[in-house]
Amino acid sequence: MQGFKTWHGGAEVMSHSDIGERNIKLKYALLIIVVLAIVLIPIGVTIGNKFFWKTEETVTKSEFDFQRIHNVVINNPNNAEAHVALGFQFLARGQRNEGLREFETAYKLDPQSQAARFGLGFGYREVGQYQKAVDILEPLVKEFPFHFLGQCNLGLAYQKLKEYDKAVKSYQMALKIKPGSADVYLELARIYIDTGKKDEALKNIEIALKYVPGYQDAINLKKSLDTK
Q1: pLDDT at 138 over 70
Q2: What is the pTM assigned to this prediction?
C-alpha cells in the first residue's frame, strides 16, 4: 500500500510509511554528525594547541627571562648593563662563549662600568682564561674592596693559577664582607689541601659545615681527607 497524506482539521496527517522514511533519514543524519565529530574534534584540539592554547609549548621562567633581556639588548644595543645581564643569561644556559661575547661588548661600551668590569672578569674565569680574569678583577677590587663577588672570583682565578697566597688574601677579604660564606671556607680548605696543610683544611671544612650543616661538597671533601 502506497504511503499517503491527508488533511484533517487543517493539520497534515502522515502515514506509517512516511514516518518510517523520516526516521531513516534522521538516523543517517545523526550518523553523519557523529562521524564528523569524531574526525573534526581532534583536528580542532590540535589546531587549538598549536596556535591558541599553547598547552604543549609552555614557556619556562628562565626562557621568558632570557627572551625579555634579549629584547632589551635588541632595542637598546648601547646599554652596557643590558649586555651584562644577557651575558649571565647565556652562562645560565651553558653558553659560555656567547656569555663572554656579551661581557666584552658591555666593557667596550662602558669600560668604567662596575657591572661590565665584573662581568668580563667573571666571563674570563668561566672560559678558563684565568690571567685575563685577574687583569680585570684586580683593579676592580682595589677600587671597590667590598665587592664580595669580585673578591671571590679573583680568589678563584688566583687559585687556578696556583697563586695560593693571593687567593687566600682574596678569600679572607671576602669573609670580612660576609663571614658566614660556607663556599669561601670550602675553597680555603681546598687550598690548604693542595699546600699540604691538612689540619687547616679540616678546620675550614668544619666551619663551612657549621654554617651549612648539610653541605654535601664539604662532607665529601672531609671524607676524602679521612681516607688519606
Answers
A1: yes
A2: 0.73
